[in-house]
Design brief:
Elements (H helix, E strand, L loop, with lengths): L1 H8 L7 H15 L11 H25 L4 E4 L5 E4 L1 H7 L7 H4 L3 H13 L3 E7 L5 E10 L10 E8 L1 H7 L1
Helix pairs in contact: 1-2, 2-3
Length: 171
């Protein structure tokens, strides 16, 4: 559902209804506990199986995020990056474990993050950055709940869209 929210519900930057539905179903299916073959009398084995399943699910989710054609960051409640896709790592460097203000100092982005967290509503932002090269980024910050695929209590997801080429063509 993380990708479903990132593209369909949040941004309007459509992946297509069928692709979005399939990705949402995959994330939902991965989150569903797999208790086949577990014996109730063996709690240690059950914990081990759950840990292995969570690790596999995390790897699959990361592969799915890496397939998204735009940079995506997921933040915890402390605004620390807990997951980044390949394009976000390419654009911002290694972001995992860093506070969003260390990833980007853009005041428009930081204000959108603060407002989305405070109001629990999606917020859009536009960034015109001139260093090191001119870039125009547009995006959305939206709150996620566990029901929507957030790890833990809740989180924020940020989806960026590079609009540099479109802006240059418009000039």
């Amino acid at each position: 559902m993380l990708l479903t929210i990132a593209y369909a519900a949040l941004t309007g930057l459509s992946l297509g209804a069928s692709a979005t539905g399939i990705l949402g179903a995959l994330v939902w299916a991965m989150a569903w506990p797999d208790d086949r073959g577990q014996r109730k009398s063996d709690p240690e084995r059950a914990r081990s199986d759950q840990s292995a399943s969570a690790s596999r699910n995390g790897a699959i989710l990361q592969d799915m995020m890496d397939a998204v054609p735009d940079p995506v960051l997921v933040l915890d409640l402390g605004r620390t990056v807990i997951r980044a896709n390949a394009l976000a790592r390419e654009q911002f460097g290694e972001a995992d474990g860093r506070h969003i203000a260390q990833v980007s100092r853009a005041p428009e982005l930081l204000a959108a993050v603060e407002k989305a967290q405070a109001l629990r509503q999606k917020q859009t932002f536009d960034i015109h950055d001139l260093t090191p090269v001119e870039r125009h980024l547009a995006g959305v910050v939206a709150p996620l709940t566990p029901e929507q695929g957030a790890p833990g209590e809740s989180a924020l997801i940020i989806v960026f869209r590079d609009r540099t080429e479109a802006e240059q063509l418009a000039q």
